Please model this.
Amino acid sequence: MMKPTLEDAAIGVPNHQIPPNATQILSEATPEQERWVLARLTTSTDKEAARVVGVHRSTVGKWVNKANLDLAVKLLLADAVQGAKTIIEGAVARAAQELVDLLNVRDPRVRLAAAENILDRAGVVKTTRQELTGKDGESLVVRYVNDWRTPEPEPKEK
Model:
């Protein structure tokens, strides 16, 4: 089976205007329409996707941008990797907000875990401790060189 092209996906779009990519189409869609497009990727019909999202199938048919939404579905299906990335990118802001919202729950363990996750993703590095030992696990001997705490010996006179 041949991979659909952008021209194939544009069939049914007025004047064959091809938006640059599915991400642009989804950025102009309502949250309900975005969920419908994502549901449409895993269902066989528009009606089934509407049921999954919780809207009536006639509502989907009345959407002014329905042709663009259908194009987004076709583009996402044509490139499965890009489709997966688009789905994930669309969920990033919501996922981040969920983490932030967890900072306000009653359970301090949940708040701590959320804070750690946020700091980790922001690139704040945890302090790590490392135990040092000498040869064969013996105690480590530390010798100070030019230690300011120990006075230097007086120079010997000749």
About this structure: The helical segments are 6-9, 22-27, 31-40, 46-53, 57-62, 66-78, 80-102, 108-121. The radius of gyration is 30 Å. Residues 6-121 form one domain.
